[in-house]
Amino acid sequence: MANNESVEKIGLHNLAPAPGSHRARRRVGRGPGSGLGKTSGKGHKGSMARSGHGGPGGGKPHFEGGQMPITRRIPKRGFTNPFRVEAQLVRLDALARVAGDEVTVETLAAAGLIRAGHGPAKLLANGTAPRAFTVRGVKVSAAAKAKIEAAGGRVD
Q1: Hey, is 145 helix, strand or coil?
Q2: Spatial CA neighbour of 108 closest among 131, 124, 88
Q3: Which three-class secondary structure string do you get for 32-83?
Q4: pTM for the whole thing?
């Protein structure tokens, strides 16, 4: 472009919506001349005319038309421990996919057996140990520990 003066840069001073793309909001309760005065387009009485309630199927959460809500019908039992940590389970025979002879959280994640950052890993005694491994920083069940040591490996 040879003539730079004819093209104006876009800035906050000249931004505007496309013509016809922005509609003015509906101003209800502003007198009879507006067409939405007096009852503000809500008709007379009834749940749809009330504030904070959208009538059947909408509005008050948990309201079931006067029927006892399910949150009150069902008894409360037990509790959920917010500090519980779920371990990611790894089968012993799946260790064949681990490169090298050391099993850590990093090598398990590299082999695709666990997801990094999704909780601790735990080895279970499903199958047999494919070869001798050194296990570090991973939880191991008692039966899996016995199988790893029987294959010539060790658990640190």
Answers
A1: helix
A2: 88
A3: HHHCCCCCCCCCCCCHHHCCCCCCCCCCCCCCCCCCCCHHHHCCCCCCCCCC
A4: 0.53
Tokens of 153: 């490996």
pLDDT digits (tens, 9 = 90+) for 7-22: 889 999 999 999 999 9
Given a cut of 80, is residue 78 above it in pLDDT? yes
Query: Nearest-CA neighbor of 63 among 52, 75, 76?
Result: 52
User: Are the beta carbons of 99 and 133 closer than 8 angstroms?
Assistant: no
CB neighbours of 88 closer than 8 A, spacing ≥ 6? 114, 115, 118, 119, 120, 121, 122
Q: List Cβ neighbours of 142 (8 Å cut-off, separation of 6 or more).
A: none
The token pair at 59 is 């509005």
Token digits for 71?
A: 């949150």
